[in-house]
């Protein structure tokens, strides 16, 4: 590095890392680095230049060694969720398959509106050595390569072809990741030659900068329209989405609901917006919801949706609500606020809820409506209490969830993803404290469970180091992506992994059977290409990666093992077999649109199709 008056000569890679090191954020009055560090796997596309830059900055930007690029991205997503999108991690991968392995995790971050910076190797700008190892050649467009595949799954994309370009590109990437309306992953393609090229950067570019996340005030006219509609409501309901937590608007949500005595239901991403014992909390809504929430959803006349994109699992593919129900959608993102003929209130949830509460005045929901919702909730509570109780059915997900729920600390974080566990956790977990549940169902990504929990634990260690991160994982997801058990042990970021083994992809087998099909290629026992199925020794496997591990026979043994896991100083894996057919949560589901064969040689498939289609009668059309 050489100095030249008011400029600093650096390589492109050095400049990127130096700039990142000097970006800070104000989090509730405390200043800290905006970027918490990164996850990296080095290859020839990033080790020589970006690796050299990261080596000199490891105190400011700690680099966690990944085992798989996809899982690095999941870990970065888990980290961002734990920090409520106020901080992010970067992921760096080599050119070629290293980078393309990040596509799925970029899509997960995009679907969930999560910040993540991808610093990925790219082919040479000069093209002098072309074609190079791992280059994907496009005969008609030599500028078009694997990294272009990220364009649909990131919010910001750039390929750096000259060192000076980062002066504009880096601030734009950060602005995107911190924008509540446009939050998502940012991608920078870094050609291997450009990474090492030098430039005389202006010194002012590297001065310390403290960021704040914008809060958009709602438009007065939109707010007035919302007040007018809500004032006329006889059966109002609030849907609380993940955006409530990202806006840090939980208190405002609670205050508004209490003042107006409006029942509150939660989306999957909005789980833990309210504690389970709150009188106005009626349960999770939708396909993986509760009878209580869905019972009032189908009767509500005005629905205030806060911080939710109203995806099909929330809306029951738009069959969960009365055909004449009116929606007010409060969302920082215009695209989400305007969905499904909603009356939009484009603005920050915290500011919008406060303004709505002030403007609504003395309005209160009718006592009989609120009472009806609370009675439905009492009935649901009784169902859940029975559902999670061991002894009256084979081992089940619900029993494992209930056992952990009884024994965990109120501030422990619970993680689940894809498969059957998101529905089971959403329905059966009784929230002990705000912001303690992460059910990844935005992109429904199997494999997030352990990797996302590792990222969450890294963030949790920065916030509440004496609490645990608990992840529920099925055997199918475990087999897809388990290597971050090793990562958690190496980095001393303890996880408690509840590994529930049902012998394959049991929830998809359930869908297969419910649609009239025979079990085929989902459970190991039903795969025609497997002559003799056998179970994996998950205890030995987890132990080989350095974790403590044991197998239990039933929920009573699980309870004792969980106590040992809590006392352990390193990652602990508890394995329990669960029944693939019995023990599912059978209540609380709305209709869900799923393509079924219109004709079939199987009478069962045809009958299931006809039965399925009957649910379409309640579907809102054209919205």
For the termini, the CA-CA separation is 58 Å
Strand order of the largest sheet: 6-5-7-8-10-9
User: Average pLDDT, to the nearest integer?
Assistant: 96
Overall SS class: alpha/beta
- Unreliable residue stretches: none
The whole-angstrom Rg is 25 Å
Shape label:
globular
How many separate domains make up the residues? 3
Largest sheet: 6 strands, parallel
Helix content, binned percent:
25-40%
Total count of helical runs of at least 4 residues: 24
Residue fraction in strands? 15-25%
Enzyme class: hydrolase
Domain Thiamine pyrophosphate enzyme TPP-binding: 440-575
Domain Thiamine pyrophosphate enzyme central: 224-356
Domain Thiamine pyrophosphate enzyme N-terminal TPP-binding: 39-134
Structure, explained:
It is a single chain. The mean pLDDT is 96. The protein has 24 helices and 24 strands. The strands form five sheets. Strands 6-5-7-8-10-9 form a six-stranded parallel β-sheet, sandwiched between helices. Strands 15-14-13-16-17-18 form a six-stranded parallel β-sheet, sandwiched between helices. The chain is an alpha/beta fold and 623 residues long. Helices cover 36% and strands 19% of the residues. Its EC number is 3.7.1.-. Belongs to the TPP enzyme family.
Quick summary:
Belongs to the TPP enzyme family. The protein is α/β, with parallel strands linked by helices and 623 residues long.
Question: How is the topology of this model organized?
Answer:
Layout: E1 2-4, E2 7-11, H1 12-21, E3 23-27, E4 30-33, E5 35-40, H2 50-56, E6 63-65, H3 69-82, E7 88-93, H4 97-100, H5 103-111, E8 116-122, E9 156-159, H6 166-178, E10 185-191, H7 192-196, E11 198-202, E12 209-211, H8 220-231, E13 236-240, H9 242-246, H10 250-260, E14 264-266, E15 281-284, H11 291-297, E16 302-306, H12 312-315, E17 326-331, H13 334-337, E18 343-346, H14 349-360, H15 367-387, H16 397-407, E19 413-417, H17 421-428, E20 437-440, H18 448-463, E21 469-474, H19 475-480, H20 484-490, E22 496-501, H21 506-514, H22 538-544, E23 548-552, H23 555-567, E24 572-577, H24 603-614
Parallel strand pairs: 3-12, 5-6, 5-7, 7-8, 8-10, 9-10, 13-14, 13-16, 14-15, 16-17, 17-18, 19-20, 19-21, 21-22, 22-24, 23-24
Antiparallel strand pairs: 1-2, 2-11, 3-4
Helix pairs in contact: 1-2, 3-5, 3-18, 8-14, 10-14, 11-15, 16-17, 16-23
Keywords: Hydrolase, Thiamine pyrophosphate, Transferase
InterPro entries: DHS-like_NAD/FAD-binding_dom, Myo_inos_IolD, THDP-binding, Thiamin_PyroP_enz_cen_dom, Thiamin_PyroP_enz_TPP-bd_dom, TPP-bd_CS, TPP_enz, TPP_enzyme_TPP-bd
Organism: Pelagimonas varians
């Amino acid at each position: 590095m050489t100095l030249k008056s008011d400029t600093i000569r650096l390589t492109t890679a050095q400049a990127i890392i130096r700039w990142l090191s000097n970006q800070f954020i104000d989090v509730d009055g405390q200043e800290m680095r905006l970027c918490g560090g990164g996850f990296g796997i080095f290859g020839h596309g990033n080790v020589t230049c970006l690796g050299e830059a990261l080596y000199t900055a490891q105190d400011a930007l700690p680099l966690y060694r990944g085992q798989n690029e996809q899982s690095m991205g999941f870990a970065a997503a888990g980290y961002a969720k734990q920090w409520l999108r106020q901080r992010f991690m970067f992921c760096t991968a080599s050119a070629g398959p290293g980078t393309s392995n990040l596509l799925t995790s970029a899509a997960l971050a995009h679907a969930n509106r999560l910040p993540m910076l991808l610093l990925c190797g790219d082919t040479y700008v000069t093209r002098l050595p072309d074609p190079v190892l791992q280059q994907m050649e496009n005969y008609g467009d030599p500028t078009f390569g694997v990294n272009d595949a990220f364009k649909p799954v990131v919010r910001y994309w750039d390929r750096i072809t000259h060192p000076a370009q980062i002066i504009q590109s880096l601030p734009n990437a950060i602005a995107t990741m911190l924008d509540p309306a446009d939050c998502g992953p940012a991608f920078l393609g870094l050609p291997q030659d450009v990474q090492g090229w030098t430039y005389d950067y202006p010194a002012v570019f590297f001065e310390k900068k403290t960021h704040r996340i914008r809060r958009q005030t709602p438009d007065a006219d939109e707010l007035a329209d919302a007040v007018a509609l809500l004032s006329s409501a006889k059966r109002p309901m609030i849907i609380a989405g993940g955006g409530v937590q990202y806006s840090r608007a939980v208190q405002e949500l609670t205050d508004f609901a209490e003042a107006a005595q409006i029942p509150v239901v939660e989306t999957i991403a909005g789980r833990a917006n309210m504690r389970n014992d709150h009188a106005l909390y009626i349960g999770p809504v939708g396909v993986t919801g509760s009878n209580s929430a869905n019972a009032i959803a189908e009767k509500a006349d005005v629905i205030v949706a806060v911080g939710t994109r109203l995806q099909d699992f929330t809306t029951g593919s738009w069959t969960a609500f009365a055909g004449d129900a009116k929606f007010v959608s409060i969302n920082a993102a215009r695209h989400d606020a305007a969905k499904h003929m909603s009356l939009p209130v484009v603005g920050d949830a915290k500011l919008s809820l406060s303004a709505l509460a002030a403007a609504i005045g003395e309005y209160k929901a009718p006592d009989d409506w609120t009472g009806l919702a609370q009675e439905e909730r009492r009935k649901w509570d009784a169902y859940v209490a029975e559902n999670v109780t061991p002894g009256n059915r084979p081992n089940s997900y619900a029993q494992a969830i209930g056992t952990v729920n009884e024994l965990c600390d109120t501030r422990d974080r619970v993680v689940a993803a894809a498969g059957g566990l998101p529905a089971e956790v959403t329905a059966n977990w009784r929230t002990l404290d705000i912001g303690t549940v992460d059910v990844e169902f935005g992109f429904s990504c199997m494999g997030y469970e352990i990797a996302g929990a590792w990222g969450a634990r890294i963030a949790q260690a920065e916030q509440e180091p004496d609490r645990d991160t608990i992840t529920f994982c099925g055997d199918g997801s475990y087999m897809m992506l388990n290597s971050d058990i090793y990562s958690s042990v190496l980095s001393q970021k303890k996880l408690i992994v509840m590994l529930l083994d049902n012998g394959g992809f049991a929830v998809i087998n359930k869908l297969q059977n419910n649609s009239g099909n025979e079990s085929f290629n989902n459970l190991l026992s039903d795969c025609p290409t497997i002559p003799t199925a056998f179970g994996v020794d998950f205890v030995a496997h987890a132990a080989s990666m350095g974790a403590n591990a044991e197998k239990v026979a039933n929920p009573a043994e699980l309870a004792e093992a969980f106590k040992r896991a809590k006392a352990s100083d390193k990652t602990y894996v508890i394995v329990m077999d669960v029944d693939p057919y019995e023990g599912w949560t059978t209540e609380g589901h709305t209709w869900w649109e799923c393509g079924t064969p219109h004709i079939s040689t199987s009478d069962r498939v045809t009958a299931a199709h006809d039965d399925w289609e009957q649910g379409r009668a309640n579907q809102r059309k054209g919205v």
